[in-house]
Amino acid sequence: MSVGTLVTMVEMQTLTRDIILAHCTQEYPLEACGMLLGDERGVSQAYPTRNEARSARIFVADPADVASARESAVSQGLNVVGVYHSHTNSEAFPSPTDVAQAPDPSWFYVVVSLARPLAELRCFAIRDGMVTELMIGEPEPSGGLVS
Ligand SMILES: [Zn+2]
């Protein structure tokens, strides 16, 4: 594949990852979810939302929280660029349900697994039912990637 617009990498600071991991760990044994704010290069902020389903198996991001996340993004000149959620008992990989319900082919999908003592965080693109893992890179202050 040589399509230049296909994203294979996502910029995300360690701090943002830590915020996502902390939220997911805090909600355990329930699934946690939240929105990702940023731009086409990557995620600059995590916006925790309540899991309306209050479930260990599924998540439904609280619509009021999602609206707040959108407002926060707009007020900062950012976009909602994805969503994160935890898997309490399975791998850090999108489930068939996650793939079927993925709302936007341009979004970043972060999945955290808490199935083992060491939490794992991975990021994916989901387009036309196809899952592609994205490498996570630390952005430089200038916005470029550390090579
Ligand atoms: Zn899932």
Automatic annotation (TrEMBL):
Query: Keyword set for this entry?
Result: Carboxypeptidase, Hydrolase, Metal-binding, Metalloprotease, Protease, Zinc
Q: Which PANTHER family match?
A: CYSO-CYSTEINE PEPTIDASE
Presence of the UniProt keyword NAD in the record:
no
Q: Which Pfam families match?
A: Prok-JAB (PF14464)
**Residues covered by the MPN domain:** 10-132
Mind telling me what this protein is named? CysO-cysteine peptidase
| Protease is among the record's keywords | yes
Q: Name the Gene Ontology biological process terms.
A: proteolysis
At the top level of its lineage, which domain of life is listed? Bacteria
Q: What sort of enzyme, by top EC class, is this?
A: hydrolase
- Mind giving the lineage of the organism this protein is from? Bacteria, Bacillati, Actinomycetota, Acidimicrobiia, Acidimicrobiales
Q: A GO molecular function for this record?
A: metalloexopeptidase activity
EC number of this enzyme: 3.4.17.-
